[in-house]
Amino acid sequence: MEPAAGGFSEEQFREACAELQQPALAGADWQLLVETLGISIYRLLDQQTGLYEYKVFGILEDCPPALLADVYLDLDYRKQWDQYVKEVYEKECNGETVVYWEVKYPFPMSNRDYVYLRQRQELEMEGQKIYVILAQSTSMPQFAEKPGVIRVKQYKQSLAIESDGKKGSKVFMYYFDNPGGQIPSWLINWAAKNGVPNFLKDMAKACHRYLKKT
Fold this sequence. Notes:
Layout: H1 10-21, E1 31-36, E2 39-46, E3 51-60, H2 65-73, H3 75-81, E4 85-93, E5 96-103, E6 112-125, E7 128-137, E8 150-152, E9 154-163, E10 169-178, H4 185-213
Helix pairs in contact: 2-4
């Protein structure tokens, strides 16, 4: 299938929609890592890198889908509520939206930065509007690597959001991130078990504040 604008195919958007409605965990060694705060996180070992792919399913109450998608994409607002953002902005390059993101890492580790394509689509499936956001690392000469910051060159993420039938959102997220360098196993485990649920909680709070702003 031909890629859509932004380097993603229509099939990739539809796959994220389908997984939101019917999780695809069979046929592979997906393991339930943690269930907390209405969020379930599964992981699958990537044999090539020795790292894990993750799938996240859950409900964010009192966060309507359109609002949640807007908050997720608002990079200026992200700087206000995400304590791990060092620098983030987007730029149009060759007709595509490219995001630059530097993430703070605890001392003595180096910060990581990302350069990735990102695109949002709104689809309808079985009468439901679904917001899908896809991201994947890319290489662009406009974004030179910084001394002392490790460039993450393998990153991909899918996010699909629909109404939970009440005032909240049903969410599916897939991500794979190869941060490079030496990352202690405790930090990777902490990020998966605690970092993701905490991030979703923070995003829910950010939605409520965003609503008051607007």
